[in-house]
Specification:
Elements lengths: L2 H6 L3 E4 L3 E5 L9 H5 L19 H10 L5 E5 L1
Antiparallel strand pairs: 1-2, 2-3
The protein binds iron/sulfur cluster.
Length: 77
């Protein structure tokens, strides 16, 4: 999905230096894969709750790829 489609489908954008992460709260199954996999990046206690640059792009995309619901997506720039 490109950014236009993600935003039109209810995803919010979280901007990093060279990677953007998109999250759709309506799709999230609360499996915790993201918060357990990369707690510095995905942390509900912080605002914004996704800090894309808190880990390497490879580490972030590895976790996003394991999101079981599709609630997390990314676009590398
Ligand atoms: S891994 Fe995906 S489904 Fe699980 S809590 Fe994170 S965003 Fe939600």
């Amino acid at each position: 999905m490109n950014e236009e489609k993600l935003l039109a489908n209810g995803y919010r954008k979280y901007v990093g230096t060279s990677l953007d992460v998109y999250f759709n709260t309506d799709l999230c199954e609360h499996s915790g894969v993201c918060v357990k996999g990369q707690p510095a990046v995905f942390n509900l206690q912080q605002k914004p709750w996704i800090k894309v640059d808190a880990a390497s792009n490879q580490e972030v995309t590895a976790v996003v790829n394991r999101c079981p619901s599709g609630a997390l997506q990314y676009i590398q720039r």
